[in-house]
Amino acid sequence: MLRLTWIQPEDLLGHELHQAAQDGREPGAIARRWRAAGGHEAPLRAGASPTPASPYLRILAKDLLDELADLPGTLADHEPTSLRKIKARCPHWPAAVAEGGHSGTSQAPGRATRPRETPTQAGLEAAWLGRAVGCLLGKPVEKLPLQGIRDLARATDNWPLHTWFTARGVPAELLHTYPWNRRSAPTSLAENIDGMPEDDDLNFPLLNILLLQRHGRTFTTTDVARLWLDELPAGRTFTAERIAYRNLLTGIEPPRTARHRNPFREWIGALIRADVHGWTNAGDPAAAAEQAHRDATLTHTANGVYAAMFTAATIAEAATGASDAHACLRTGLTVVPPASRLARAIRHAVQLAGTTADFDTVVDELHTTHSAYHWVHAVPNTALIAAALTHADGDFTGSICRAVSGGLDTDSNGATAGSIAGLLAGAPGALPDRWTSPLKNRLATSIADFNGIGFDMLAHLTHRETRRP
Q1: Nearest Cα to 276, choosing from 311, 244, 302, 245?
Q2: Alpha-carbon distance 257 to 101, whole Å?
Q3: Buried b vs exposed e over 168-200: b needs ≥16 C-beta within 10 Å?
Q4: Is residue 401 classed as helix, strand or coil in its secondary structure?
Q5: 284: annotated binding-site residue?
Q6: 8 A C-beta contact, residue 451 and residue 231
Q7: Residue 286 contacts by C-beta under 8 Å, 6 or more apart in sequence?
Q8: Which one-letter DSSP state was computed for residue 116?
Q9: Domains in the chain, ordered, with CATH?
Q10: In whole angstroms, how far apart are CA 408 and each of 39, 132, 247, 388, 460?
Q11: 411 is in an annotated binding site
């Protein structure tokens, strides 16, 4: 029987109960009704439970999802989704670009401006390559528990992690206990890599290049929605993106697409779409964050949106070529409400990584601190990315390996860390050949006409968008 992941009502209900508890609602009474009726918990790691619910339970799940949406929360004042309210809560919101730039309307009167920058094409190519390499490194161990990642790497003398995962030399009993990601192992283990395979962590940056080509910097959230319906196969969406896609097809319009029966609205999906907004707004983190906000609110709210804004602003600062990883992360935090869960998690992760020599210790504490969150939630994953970049001091290999070795959403974390560290490296030649050569300057995708495109051409297309008014 077909079990569609990330969309069955009986599975969504369990995730929404977790979301409600995390964002300050009180779901206890609804949870008791669900369990009394025979409802199950949310799937721990997969996107769907193994067996379908009865027609009665499915109807009940839909009703309870709507009841949960109506519950009052206690965190709304500290964690708004409206851009106006987000900016009002950010006392250090970045300065706008100077006259002639593209974010002047975002700046409060009287604030100083800063000059607009243009990143080098070589830097953008390094960023694209870094994103692909980090993603590919994390693909075979996606969904594995932290202990499994460590044991598999140790079995091949690859711990601390410093190169690609391989199945060569791994004991059969260990692979039985911790099997590689079924879909990714054939294309992402060292012995199998032959170009960059398709992944949503690369598909979304491609879509955002199309978005800017067609609509420019003033695109709307509705433009994002139309582009997805035109160019993004539904089967290439996951979690919040799949729910929003479904909502669009049923006639629900943005931004309600992010809220209607969508328990994944604070997960990592919007974060992985943020890179292009940062790459094309070098030196203008405010504009980068605002673009990321318009993109993210199709699918996400609150901390899910902040994670995208934080990433875009961090990358916009990195794209200037004038700041180190630590300054970039500080810039990223200026667009996140300081009292939010995400801001607190990032500050904790940076402080921990900056004062702890052993990164395994950092990871263990982060996992303990954020144990209540799903492994794809934006809060623990953004914290891990910040910790990896901090602990590695922005070094490319150190950043991607720490991000992946920390578990959680391994390919997405590796991709974002790789994008930032690649941009900081400044040129493709600054990235170790053992990482970039297996990609063969070739990316597979189902997006538009991009299949087989080279990273050099992607850098050219991105660089062209940096010059758009």
Answers
A1: 311
A2: 32
A3: eebeeeeeeebebbeebbebbbbebbeebbebb
A4: helix
A5: no
A6: no
A7: 93, 94, 95, 96, 103, 106, 107, 313, 335
A8: -
A9: 9-69 (no CATH), 83-134+197-466 (1.10.4080.10)
A10: 26, 18, 27, 13, 33
A11: yes
**Closest by alpha carbon to 420, among 333, 312, 270, 336?**
312
Give the pLDDT of residue 52.
85
Tell me the one-letter amino acid at 280. Answer: T
Contact 27, 264 (CB under 8 A): no
- The answer to whether 273 and 308 have CB atoms below 8 angstroms apart is yes
- Tokens read off for 52: 């379908």
- Inter-residue contact 292 to 274 (CB < 8 Å): yes
- The angle that helices 200-215 and 410-425 make with each other, rounded to 10 degrees, is 60
Indicate yes or no: pTM above 0.85: yes
The CA distance from 105 to 112, in Å, is: 13
Nearest-10 crossing angle of helices 200-215, 221-231: 120
The pair of structure tokens assigned to 446 is 């189902």
Give the pLDDT confidence score for residue 12 in this predicted structure.
Answer: 96
Q: Which amino acid is at 140?
A: P
Report, as ranges of residue numbers, the positions in the chain whose pLDDT lies below 50.
Answer: 99-101, 103-112
What are 7's strand-pairing partners?
A: none
Tokens coding 108: 């409060």
Please report the pLDDT score of residue 116 as a whole number. Answer: 58
Give the C-alpha distances (Å, rounded to integers) separating 85 from 76, 277, 378.
Answer: 11, 21, 20
3-state secondary structure string across 201-213:
HHHHHHHHHHHHH
Return d(Cα 123, Cα 138) in angstroms, integer: 23
Burial class (CB in 10 A: 0-12, 13-18, 19+), 347: middle
Contact 381, 408 (CB under 8 A): yes
What single-letter DSSP state applies at residue 46? Answer: S
* φ, ψ (nearest 5 deg) of residue 337: -55, 125
